[in-house]
Design brief:
Undecaprenyl pyrophosphate synthetase; 2 domains; six-stranded parallel sheet; binds farnesyl diphosphate
């Protein structure tokens, strides 16, 4: 997989800027099941096609110069699906790491995993650790894989860590700032998403990056995830380019 961040596109440049290219794009890859059902196929076939769309998306993100891509690949609520679908998704993650890791590494992609680790099988945990470890010094696109992820649980874990530090006398309650909280989240050190794209017509966050999305722009499109292609991605980026981000302030012309 060749992922070559382009140097000639404008990247976002801090608060109040009218950046044309988001630094960080997060995806809620929705509609795999509907895509398959509409074709008389098993839902798992939709997930398989969804993996192809994911590969396309990572490649394109690198090509156009996006710095961070986050994908919602398995939510903490997805355990409620039928056992066969859950185990298919676990298998798909394994296949993704086993088949694509060396190519992603060669393409200088750095992989970060976010989400709860406690419910995952040791085999999967080992694969995820291997992916993070192998790619930790890469300097190209950062691919953040949200797996067994739920934002409320992430925030609760962060609050527990802060409480432990207070109990240990390392931190005063007054020192619990937005920065301190951000620093305890799974996404610590990453920029917040500039753009969150959800496919398949639903317009909700579904417990994804609730803290980090405070000033994200949202883009919803009707394509089911397996149909999401370069043109659909470019359309979302172009729409983002026309948004005016004010972060609660005023348009410069209004001051
Ligand atoms: C939501 O569609 C999608 C998921 C729960 C899984 C997303 C997985 C992929 C895109 C494949 C890549 C996966 C990994 C693990 C790297 P849905 O099944 O809820 O669709 P529906 O709303 O139409 O039923």
């Amino acid at each position: 997989m060749s992922v070559n961040p382009s140097q000639n596109l404008q990247t976002s440049a801090g608060k109040g800027s009218t950046s044309k290219l988001p630094r960080h794009v997060a995806f809620i890859m929705d509609g795999n099941g509907r895509w398959a059902t509409a074709r008389g196929l098993a839902r798992t076939e939709g997930h398989r096609k969804g993996l192809e769309a994911l590969r396309r998306t990572i490649r394109h993100a690198g090509r156009i110069g996006i710095e961070v891509v986050t994908i919602y690949s398995f939510s903490s609520e997805n355990w409620n699906r039928p056992k066969t679908e859950v185990s298919f998704l676990m298998g798909l993650l394994r296949r993704f790491v086993q088949r694509d890791l060396s190519e992603l590494h060669e393409a200088n992609v750095r992989i970060r995993i976010i989400g709860g680790r406690s419910d995952l099988e040791p085999g999967i945990l080992a694969l995820l650790a291997e992916a993070e470890d192998l790619t930790k010094n890469n300097t190209g696109l950062t691919l953040v894989v949200a797996f067994n992820y739920g934002a409320r649980a992430e925030m609760a874990r962060a609050a527990q860590n802060l409480a432990r530090k207070v109990l240990a006398g390392e931190l005063s309650p007054e020192a619990i700032s937005e920065e301190a909280m951000s620093g305890e989240l799974d996404t610590s050190g990453l920029p917040d998403p500039d753009l969150i794209i959800r496919t398949s017509g639903e317009m909700r966050l579904s417990n994804f990056l609730l803290w980090q999305a405070a000033y994200s722009e949202f883009y919803f499109c009707d394509e089911h995830w397996p149909d999401f292609d370069e043109a659909a991605f470019d359309k979302a980026i172009s729409c983002f380019g026309n948004r005016e981000r004010r972060y609660g302030g005023l348009d410069a012309k209004a001051i």
